[in-house]
Structure formats: structure tokens, C-alpha cells
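Researcher: Please predict.
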Amino acid sequence: MSSLDRTQVSAVRSQVSELAERVAAVAERLSEGPTTDASSALFEAERSLRMAERALDRAHGALDG
């Protein structure tokens, strides 16, 4: 595989990680009061993004070896 492929996977992984952090921050802000349903949905989205992040880590590792 080319270094371009590894670079692109790494860049996507960084974006997913940043997005997960942003989603978690919004979920935290909404965790109080009448917005707990939205907060729960956002925490679920964050978990999915973290799973995607781990999958991208595995893909990056597979490109190295």
C-alpha cells in the first residue's frame, strides 16, 4: 500500500476522533433537564464513532503490515 493510503486513513481517523469529542461535549451539555433523550442519542452516536475510530486504527495497522 502507498503512504498516501496510510495518510488518508490517518486523517480520517483524526476527523472521526474530533467529531466523537464534539458529539460527547454536546451530549454532556444536554444531559441535564428535559433534553436527556437527545443526550442519550448523542452518547450512542459517540460510542459508534469510537468504534469507527478503532476500526480505522485496525485498518491503518493492516496497511503497515
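Model: DSSP finds two helices and no strands in the chain.
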